[in-house]
Amino acid sequence: MNKEEKIIEFMKNRLEQDIISTAESFAENFSDRGHFDFSIQSLRILDDILEELCDYKLDNDALNSVSSMAGSYIFEVARRNYGGQYYWVQDRDQPVLVTGEPDYSISIFAFDKVKGRIQNGKEDEIPYYFDGYIEAVKKVRKPVTVLL
Known about the structure:
Number of strands: 3
Strand order of the largest sheet: 1-2-3
Distance between the termini: 38 Å
Shape: globular
Oligomer: single chain
Radius of gyration: 16 Å
Largest sheet: 3 strands, antiparallel
Structural class: mainly alpha
Order of helices and strands: HHHEEEHH
């Protein structure tokens, strides 16, 4: 592995660790609101919290902070249940989770989705969005036959 590849690998690992620690902090900080166990069902609780925030006018710093915390939790629900790798998308100034490489590629931008949920209300519901991600992953996964 050359120096550039080592730097890229280090940055990917650092991004993953940052997202994991932010997601775990979110789960711990909001444990009084429900059981955040990184299950798909726990996204309903997260969505309820975001619904409450729709009533407030958040400045950009607060919106970015909430998007990072809640988005990291969504990312980790996806990664822990369906796998994937985090990448930083410079022109969008946020991470993306890509599931299925190299066989297929399903990507989600959770930070944008959280912002949309807070700004647009129920039309951008997180569980509905996540169901679309699950369906996309299931559709492209190839069944495997194992002969014993």
